[in-house]
Amino acid sequence: MNKILKEKEIKRWWDSKRQLRWQNIYEGKDYSSLALNNREFKILYYLNKNNKKLNILEIGFGGGQLAYKILKKGHHYTGIDVSSNLTKIANAKCKKYQKKNFNFSVGSFNKKLKFKNNCFDLVIMAGVLQYSSDPKFVFNEINRVLKEKGEFICAQTNVFKLHFFFKLRTLLIRLYYFLSKEEYEINDSLRSFFLETKLKKYVNKNLKKFITNNKYCNKGYSVNKFDFKKRIFFRKKLINLGKQNNFTVITKDACGPYLQIGYKFSIYAIFNYILEIFSNIFFFRFLKKFGESQIIIFKK
Ligand SMILES: C[S@@+](CC[C@H](N)C(=O)[O-])C[C@H]1O[C@@H](n2cnc3c(N)ncnc32)[C@H](O)[C@@H]1O
After folding, report:
1. Strand ranges (E), 127-180
2. Pairing state of beta strands 55-59 and 76-81?
3. Measured from the CB, is residue 291 less than 6 Å from ligand 1?
4. How high is the pLDDT of residue 1?
5. What is the DSSP-derived secondary structure letter of residue 158?
6. Any ligand 1 atom below 6 A from CB of 155
7. Domain coordinates of the chain in residue numbers?
């Protein structure tokens, strides 16, 4: 797909009515809210390890939830986001802070960033890289705007989350991603698996008709009204991207939930709690590769 058209579609998606939910998505009780809160908790943990007042850039700020907490700590904050609606929401959320300490603006990381070289102490990007047309370009730009020894917190939704390995169709799709080195995500449905991947050339007319009409094959399928695909990311891919762009990896972390739970108490919540504890013990640290989001900290 044409790069400009894809960029327009991403903006159209992020300016759509549905995305107004980002205004209070962190206050929900479901899996997504728990995943977002866990990720934000870890980002703030690493950010607050440093006692200095920082000049921070966030790329893709959503509803401005992280910005609000960064400003509360007295840092200087700049944010860019492709969505005009979310920019208004984030501005409204942070209105109680002094205007001179923050700036939200509409912009895309797929274009050269409008900032000078070496001007930020820290860049944060959480759950945004899947929308990049060229991830190497994005990393290169982040490197350019960071000061020497500046840090980059890259938190990214993981395509190899643990709970995907417990369901046949999501497992099959993960195996396919792993073996095919596919660049873009598909819906977690057998319909997408057979008809939207490189496998489609092996599907004849009759089989296509069967797959399209079969109830099980359509589980997890949805029609995409926006003409773009999300990029696939996992731990190794992020680390390699950083290294290729002259970053040094200083921390490799991840967050849960590892199982598909929300805030409600259940037996799965207990299992999840145990997995979270185990993931911090040396011998079981490999579990983090299957965490909900990967959190990699790079240094320039
Ligand atoms: C999944 S949300 C994550 C929001 C926030 N970082 C968080 O974790 O709560 C993705 C965000 O990236 C923004 N975004 C998508 N494509 C972008 C682009 N090309 N340039 C800048 N921001 C973009 C969206 O508007 C949205 O705010």
Report:
1. 146-157
2. parallel
3. no
4. 60
5. -
6. no
7. 3-158+233-299, 164-213
